[in-house]
Amino acid sequence: MRSYPRNSPEAAARIVALVLISDGHVCSSEFDILKQLGAERELGLEPHLLPHIVHTLCEELLACGYETGSLISSVNDSTLASLMAEISDPVLQKKVLRLSLAAARADGHLADGETLVVEAARHHWRLVDGEEPSTTKVAHRHAA
Predict the structure, then answer these.
(1) What own/partner pairs with CB < 8 Å and gap ≥ 24 does 86-91 have?
(2) pTM above 0.90, yes or no
(3) β-strand 132-133 against 127-128: which pairing, if any?
(4) What are the extents of the domains in the chain?
(5) From 13, 29, 65, 121, which residue has the greatest number of CB atoms within 10 Å?
(6) Residues 8-27, buried b or exposed e (16+ Cβ, 10 A)?
(7) Is 7 left (phi over 0), alpha (psi -120 to 50) or beta?
């Protein structure tokens, strides 16, 4: 999987894209809420680039050996850690988590895959509810 420059708009958007595809399908309501929230602007992306990032992520996951199940099943702990490590700016981390949660909740259901990615972000970035950095280490480790 390609790497993006640290804290780049593309690296941030890829985390949001991962949440979008993690339940096996992307609903128009998810893109609608991201448009309402000005997600591309918030992340510093060029207009209309988010769908391209989603498409590119899907292609990369397919190329990584996706065979059965959902695309998220080909993303292991190491890959998640690597993707999360590309976002080190606390302000950007909070934006990504806020936008990801908004998209995940847009269809009225938080799927297991969406929860997996959101919890990985919280763990790696030491965030609680996307607001403030945690002052204590996360006591549990998520499993992929």
Answers:
(1) 86/3, 86/4, 86/5, 86/6, 86/7, 86/8, 86/11, 86/14, 87/6, 87/7, 87/11, 87/12, 87/15, 87/125, 88/6, 88/7, 89/7, 90/125, 90/133
(2) no
(3) antiparallel
(4) 9-133
(5) 13
(6) bbbbbbbbbbbbbbbbeebe
(7) left
Six-digit token string for 71:
């695309």
What pLDDT, in 10s, does the model give residues 32-58? 999 999 999 999 999 999 999 999 998
Is the pLDDT assigned to residue 73 strictly greater than 80? no
Q: Where are the alpha helices (DSSP H) in the chain?
A: 9-21, 28-36, 39-43, 50-63, 77-85, 90-105, 112-125
Residue that the structure tokens 């929860």 belong to? 115
